[in-house]
Amino acid sequence: MYLCLVKKGVYYILVFVLLMTIGTMVYSYWDKLTSLWQDPERFKNLVLDATQLSQLTFKVILIGLMLSTAAVLIDLMSLGWKKSGLRRLIINPSGSAKIDLWCYFLSVFKIYEVLYFVLTMGVFYFVAGLFSKFMNVNLSQYISNVYLQFVFVFVLTDFKHYIGHRFMHIRPFWELHAYHHSADEFNLLTTTRGHLVEAGFYYLFTGLFFALLGVPAMSIFLVYGFREFYQYLLHSDVNWKLGIVGKVLLISPAAHKLHHSINEKDYNKNYSTFFIWWDLLFGTYQAPTADYVIGIEDNPYNKVGFLKGQWIGIKRFLKLKD
Hints:
- By secondary structure, this protein is an all-alpha fold.
- It has helices spanning 2-28, 30-37, 40-50, 58-79, 85-90, 95-108, 111-119, 123-134, 146-167, 174-181, 196-213, 217-234, 245-248, 253-259, 277-282, 306-317.
- The radius of gyration is 20 Å and the shape is globular.
- The mean pLDDT is 81.
């Protein structure tokens, strides 16, 4: 009872802070905001700069496509055509696969960033900008060796993902993250399935983390390249346990599939996204023992389109009636 009251209190405080932030932004920048409607070109440039899409090149998008293609080839060689994720995506795809295809398209072409910037009125970018302005510690500058610096950034970035992932399993934030868990099949592209508002909360974690570390651009590029490729494999149906490596070093695809199990008791296990260390250290590791059925109970998401599914997630997050 006491824990329930504490959780509700934290929820209402966060909603209050979010509303106050929106109110402060509108009050402080009202003149600038109203002028944007009269200058669409300026508004477009603001969105592109804030989401960093203005810095994207064809090469970056091409690399993203190449990473997913490499994962598809590994999946094909491991499972064969009949069991492959590629077959499930292009031959009579299920409702779950169709949502994954939509999310992949939005993700790889970086349209997600624009959508959640507009949906959240730039609140998360605004707060992340405050982190960068007032908390720019730049810890990575104290490591002169570029290789040690990369290892330092890689390990701490992975820890940041673990913390952020656990946070999104706390209600009511789970109601947003449940959109990712709503996939009832793994086809590699499931890694890109996510709620737009959840992406905003992850952006806050990323903004705070980068403000503290002051991560070099090349390190960011390499870290996220490795992570993105491995996430495709974690959300494939290869079901590898990886032997001793999967017990002491890397989270295995089989262990991550357990995390997506439709049994609610499994949701809070195997949060890691690359190194298994964090689950072992914080007592959230559970060894996979079966080929789990994945998904969530009370799952409307694969029966509706992308936009309606996003709206359902928002209503559940705000505790409004479906």
